[in-house]
């Protein structure tokens, strides 16, 4: 059933272009209407929303962190993202005009389910983004958008993450349109860019040879750091989580701007630092700041592994290794920049002789709080 792949994880990483395409399929009509799978929310309910809370755990939480940037940018509604296990117990301020978005691959994560139940008790509307038909979280939600990733067997989440991002973008666009913040043609333009993403993800996958070689090299590292800005920050967190859970290595993701507030002390000669560089065509200020951060860590001896947009040759002098990804609009970039980090973690874990699909101490679905 691994279809010729060594691990389910490798197979699932490779399925990502298809998974993203399926999640996009048939969602938007010519008139811009979005099709949710089960909707017990009216457009008026969505127009009344004055605050969005995203709740999730682990990788799904990182998808939520990316979504915050897109949702606030497109809808202008304040959006917060919170770990489900924290949200539930801090008495969040919620009412019927709050939209709570619960993101869960399995639909059975107890922390997320308890957060959702708490939200419903406070009369908030709940929208689930879920990969598992008929699971508990979508059953208890007011509306559901299913990700069409297909079954994810490996404990480490990969294709679920990319499809969750895709679903979050769709929710953001739909909200923006229903509320009149974006016109149908503007939404259509973003959808067109989204529809180009499966081919871009495929292009990244086809260029992973050097990442595999690099992985063998990094397998003995004591610690790997990841830095990013804007949507590249949650990508850095996700890269670090993958490495922790699969390779059992110390790995940490940081907002690059935070480096000088403490973490830069961690850098020793040879410390690998994976740097997720924003597109130079998008928010170029951010990209320039990230390039300065690369220079800062390099000056302290870091070995820099730079993920940058094709054509951004100016990063090359500061990179010990460069991984180029196709040009992509800033908000959608995590769909391509995450992929090399998944491959890196999978290959490092394999080089260290670990069970890639079944890392120690972990379960695929965490049904206890
Ligand atoms: O099924 P869920 O999306 O609710 O699961 C949430 C986390 O347990 C999950 O993403 C976990 O962090 C993964 N093992 C990460 O690869």
Write a structural description.
- The protein has 369 residues and is α/β, with parallel strands linked by helices.
- The chain is built from 14 helices and eleven strands.
- A six-stranded mixed β-sheet has the order 1-6-5-4-2-3, with helices on both faces. Strands 8-7-9-10-11 form a five-stranded parallel β-sheet, with helices on both faces.
- α8 runs antiparallel to α9.
- The protein is globular.
- 5-amino-5-deoxy-1-O-phosphono-D-mannitol is lined by residues 57-60, 104-106, 109, 112, 155-157, 241, 245, 365-366.
Provide the descriptors you would attach to this structure in a database record.
binds 5-amino-5-deoxy-1-O-phosphono-D-mannitol, alpha/beta, cytoplasm, carbohydrate derivative binding, 6-stranded mixed beta sheet, EC 2.6.1.16, Glutamine--fructose-6-phosphate aminotransferase [isomerizing], 369 residues, glutamine amidotransferase, 5-stranded parallel beta sheet, 14 helices
